[in-house]
Amino acid sequence: MKQLIVITGASSGIGAAMAQAFSAKGHPLLLLARRVEPMQALGLENSLSISVDVTDADAMKAAIAEAEAKFGPVGCLINNAGVMLLGAADVQDPAEWSRMLNINVMGVLNGIHAVLADMKARKTGTIINVSSVAGRKTFPNHAAYCATKFAVHALTENIREEVAMDDVRMITIAPGAVETALLSHTTSEEIKDGYNDWKEFMGGVMDPTAVADAAVFAFEQPQNVCVREIVLAPTRQQP
User: Fold this and answer.
1) Alpha helices in 101-203 (DSSP H)
2) Rounded to whole angstroms, how far apart are CA atoms 46 and 35?
3) Which residues 6+ apart lie within 8 Å of 149 measured at CB?
4) What is the pLDDT of residues 41-87, one digit of tens each?
5) How many whole angstroms from its chain centre is CA 139?
6) Confidence of residue 239 (pLDDT cuts 50, 70, 90)
7) Which end of the chain is more exposed for a tag (fewer CB within 10 A), N or C?
8) How far, in Å, CA of 154 to CA of 79, rounded?
9) Which helix (H) or strand (E) holds 215?
10) What phi and psi, each to the nearest 5 degrees, are found at residue 29?
């Protein structure tokens, strides 16, 4: 059996596309999200779908232990779960900042903490963190969201340096505009309308399968090759 792939935020969008892509390659899967039904509806062989909030470190570890008992040790963890709540810094509810920080940053760290020690002990493993172009540059109404994604870039590179001699790979994937449900989480209709106008101006955005294919490409490199960062966006996306 091929290596176990763990994917957070696997119920829709990029996570669901990644689940399908890695399943097509013959990998057993642990799919994690708050909603189980959409993950089960994917109908993927050798997959285990568990309802987990990534901010619950103990629940993450328990789910991974259950999958490893069935499929063997984690070959790759993909920290994909995230939320995008856009707003002006003087208007946005600070509770939305806390939610993004907890999911987008602590959720990633919880996933890393659940698998990294074992990967180091085995001298192999890959962790892919899904960040964003907003982790490399800023955008209007994105201050808190950018803060979380800049954090993902920083912690990934920092840990990569720490575990390089253990032959563990840390990879950042930074997509631009992708057709997902992320925008629906934003509460400001004005901001959502402006974002949708931008998408139309570009003539559409990327399909989640493009990001999934990038993850498969990075993972399938030899273990002594680390694709440290992949940035991909619609060709017409200028920023």
Assistant:
1) 107-122, 143-163, 189-201
2) 19
3) 104, 131, 132, 134, 135, 174
4) 999 999 999 999 999 999 999 999 999 999 999 999 999 999 999 99
5) 20
6) confident
7) N
8) 15
9) helix 208-219
10) -130, 145
Residues 6+ apart with CB under 8 A from 148: 82, 100, 101, 104, 105
Measured distance CA(177)–CA(73) in Å, rounded: 33
Nearest to 3 by CA among 69, 76, 61: 76
The span from the CA of 173 to the CA of 15, in Å, is 13
Cα(30)–Cα(123) distance, integer angstroms? 21
Residue 29 CA to residue 40 CA, distance in Å, equals 12
How sure is the predictor about 190, in pLDDT bands with cuts at 50, 70 and 90? Answer: confident
Please give the structure tokens belonging to residue 26: 């013959």
CA distances (Å), 38 to each of 49, 67, 84, 192, in order?
9, 19, 20, 25
- Count Cα neighbours of 134 within 13 Å in the Cβ-side half-sphere: 20
218: tokens are: 């990075």
For residue 121 the two structure tokens come to 């002990």
Q: Would you say 153 and 111 are in contact if contact means Cβ atoms under 8 Å apart? A: no
229-232 and 169-175: which strand pairing?
A: parallel
Task: Verify whether residue 145 is a known catalytic residue.
Answer: yes
In the set 145, 150, 195, 219, the catalytic residue is: 145
The pTM of this model reads 0.95
Show the beta-strand stretches assigned E in the chain.
4-8, 29-33, 47-51, 74-79, 126-130, 169-175, 229-232
